[in-house]
């Protein structure tokens, strides 16, 4: 019998997105996966402001001052207060890092270069040193899309580690070449292989929309269970994406979930969860 880790959500998820929560809750209950709501959170994207587990298991709480929330202070959770109220112990760093921009596995951590512009008072060398010391991992940086294309610059909307030596990445046929080149350079340096995941954009998506519909790489792995986003909208590539994830994880149970009410706000299942 599996003993799953507890999955944490902002308390605002249940209140503000009840339909999406019921969809998630049904899957968690089906597999007897425990969950907990985090108090004193200001928005549902708890992946970003909660501590990051370092390579040696230490919880590291980075500073949470994302530039994209500069004019939305009411949406900015205060990590120290969230941790205190929820009795979560962590070590603290003054480096400004979103959890969604950290993909750590086996002594290697991937981020986009957005971390450098988010820390203008730190030199590149200082950022690298702090990440290395706190996360006990060697950092690699893929170039990020321009802010008018990708507001957050998070790596978890671009690619995810499957296992040591392998990642899955969004189909980058429509990406800027400088982003693709930086990604391929890292993969070549590490001698890792990658699989491309289908990607699509809604035909009627407004220009100013934050919707993340069409991104399949932002899934959640809980031991042998995967909560995998599907969208069920016109032009979707749900079937193709499910085939890819099944091939990547042949021994895991894939649970497709549609939480489009959340996704239209700019994030997916990995964004709204924190697993300790």
From TrEMBL:
InterPro entries (alphabetical): Peptidyl-Arg-deiminase_porph (IPR007466)
SUPFAM superfamilies: Pentein
Origin: domain of life: Bacteria
One GO term (biological process): putrescine biosynthetic process
A Pfam family annotated for this UniProt entry: PAD_porph
UniProt keywords, alphabetically: Hydrolase
One term of GO molecular function: protein-arginine deiminase activity
PANTHER family, per the entry: AGMATINE DEIMINASE-RELATED
Name of this protein: Agmatine deiminase family protein
